[in-house]
Design brief:
Strand content of chain B: 25-35%
Distance between the termini of chain A: 43 Å
Strand content of chain A: under 5%
CATH architecture of chain B: Beta Barrel
Number of domains of chain B: 1
Structural class of chain B: alpha+beta
Largest sheet of chain A: none
Helix content of chain B: 10-25%
Strand order of the largest sheet of chain B: 1-2-3-4-7-8-6-5
CATH class of chain B: Mainly Beta
Order of helices and strands of chain A: HH
Helix content of chain A: over 70%
Number of strands of chain B: 8
Distance between the termini of chain B: 74 Å
CATH superfamily of chain B: Sortase
Number of helices of chain B: 2
Radius of gyration of chain A: 18 Å
Structural class of chain A: mainly alpha
Oligomer: heterodimer
CATH topology of chain B: Sortase, Chain: A
Number of strands of chain A: 0
């Protein structure tokens, strides 16, 4: 998966490394700001309320 | 075969990294979001209260009126037993969207100072862990509620564990459905054990003082 992605990235090794880091940061940010807030509401983690 | 094993390893490692990131989000990220919301609620309340009118004795005067929409802040809660810096705003509503930013008033229960049962729910963990120490409260501990017009002091009188379906703790007379209330109670609710939704810790208190701000 990562190897496949690495071989398709353009440029030299430093450029590829930078692009790879940017891609990972973008994925992490999408998880942090969009996926995790949604998941934390829908997963049974600390459901402290009664009703709604 | 080797490629399959490598791909499987990468997927497992990626899933592990995502799980760790999610745990980091729950422990730290939700707290950051909650702290930001608390700052916003606090400045909103301070702005609204700056020109708050004063009045006579809060218990004898007509009850303070609350007309709130879901998610709107209306009070501060302070519990000295949780430490000198423990203070949160209270907002209307206890759906996850509200509990993720602040402890909330359970809709349908009474308001601070009113005869009946003023119920407040908060997260035990995540979102700043507001009610992390709720199970450690003891009879005699004090709970302060500060609203626009009044400062209310409740004294803890009891604590118990119930199932999430035991809604009788929210009745105007807790655990006595249909009974007419004569006392001014507070009920604080959070989950137990931490990180689960299997049970609720219920801390009950009674109003001992109400003075105008």
């Amino acid at each position: 998966m990562y190897g496949w992605l690495w071989h398709r990235l353009p440029g030299t090794t430093p450029a590829r490394t930078g692009t790879m880091i940017l891609i990972m940061l973008a994925v992490a940010a999408a998880l942090w700001f969009f996926v995790f807030p949604w998941a934390s509401i829908h997963l049974p983690v600390d459901v402290s309320g009664f009703g709604g | 075969m080797r490629q399959v094993i490598r791909a499987a390893g990468e997927i497992v490692l990626t899933a592990g990294a995502i799980c760790l990131l999610f745990i980091g989000y729950l422990v730290w990220g939700t707290g950051v979001r909650e702290a930001s919301a608390q700052r916003q609620f606090t400045s909103e309340l301070n702005r609204q209260w700056r020109q708050a009118p004063s009045r006579g004795d809060a218990i004898d005067a007509s009850p303070e009126q609350f007309h709130l929409t879901t998610g709107e802040p209306f009070a501060f809660i302070t519990i000295p037993a949780f430490g000198p810096h423990w203070r949160f705003t209270l907002i209307q509503g206890t759906a996850m969207a509200q509990l993720d930013v602040s402890p909330g008033h359970v809709p349908g229960t009474q308001w601070p100072g009113q005869v009946g049962n003023f119920a407040v729910a908060g997260h035990r963990v995540t979102a700043g862990n507001p009610f992390w120490s709720l199970p450690s409260l003891r009879a005699g501990d004090l709970v302060y509620i500060q609203t626009k017009l009044d400062n209310y002091t409740y004294r803890v009188i009891g604590k118990k564990w119930v199932a999430p379906t035991d809604l009788a703790v929210l009745d105007p007379v807790p655990d006595h459905p249909g009974q007419r209330p004569t006392k001014r109670m507070i009920t604080l609710i959070t989950c137990d054990p931490a990180w689960t939704g299997t049970h609720r810790v219920i801390v009950t208190g009674i109003l001992i003082a109400a003075v105008p701000r």
